[in-house]
Amino acid sequence: MESVTQATYGPPEKMKKTTQHIGAAGELLVQYKLIKFGIDSAAMTTDSGIDLVAYSPKSNRSFTIQVKAKEKPSPDGGNGKSSLSWDLRDNSPAELVAITDLSTDSVWLFTHSEFAKLAQQHSAKGIFKLYMYVDETVKTKKEMALLSQFEQYKIENRILTFF
């Protein structure tokens, strides 16, 4: 027997999600990963460029975090190789930037300056763009562009750096 959800909306992967749903899911994923490591965090109630505040018992201080979420990889340029990409304002007030891939429950954690340094593009409008090709066979001229090259920035590998 088909569930009410499937009968009403179709298969779960076909359910309509807004950018607000995707953003909220990204924030919750980051909080989930932090809490698994015993790190307390709280969501901000307004969108001022800071999504979460996380407390580090190691350094006895709090860190501000901007979360950028992607639902899943998409073709580069609309019809190219599959990639993930995130945009960040160069004047973002957050100390840390967490980027997520909801399709794999992956989170990468950067300082603002690391994100800026690793971003492959910086527009005249003040937007950094960081992307990762999911297909490891892609030939690229960029030093850091393949998903595997960002392994050191996975939250599981960065947790002790900050918290």
Can you summarize the main beta sheet?
Answer: 5 strands, mixed
Total strand count, please?
A: 9
Our estimate of the beta-strand percent is 25-35%
Structural class: alpha+beta
Number of helices: 4
Question: For the terminal residues, how far apart are their CA atoms?
Answer: 47 Å
Tally of separate domains = 1
Mean pLDDT: 91
* Helicity level: 10-25%
Per the CATH scheme, the topology name is Trna Endonuclease, Chain: A, domain 1
What order do the helices and strands follow? HHEEEEEEEHEEH
Which architecture would the CATH scheme give at its second level? 3-Layer(aba) Sandwich
Which outline best applies? globular
What is the radius of gyration? 17 Å
Low-confidence stretches: none
> Strand arrangement, largest sheet?
1-2-3-6-7
The top-level CATH class is: Alpha Beta
Q: Can you put this structure into words, describing what you see?
A:
With 163 residues, this protein is α+β, with helices and mostly antiparallel strands. The chain has one domain: Trna Endonuclease, Chain: A, domain 1 (3-Layer(aba) Sandwich). The chain has four helices and nine strands. It has helices at residues 4-9, 19-36, 112-118, 155-162, and strands at residues 41-43, 52-56, 61-70, 74-75, 82-89, 96-101, 106-111, 121-122, 127-133. The strands form two sheets. A five-stranded mixed beta sheet has the order 1-2-3-6-7. Strands 4-5-9-8 form a four-stranded antiparallel beta sheet, with helices on one face. The longest helix has 18 residues, at 19-36. The protein is globular, with a radius of gyration of 17 Å. The termini are far apart. The model has no long low-confidence stretch (mean pLDDT 91).
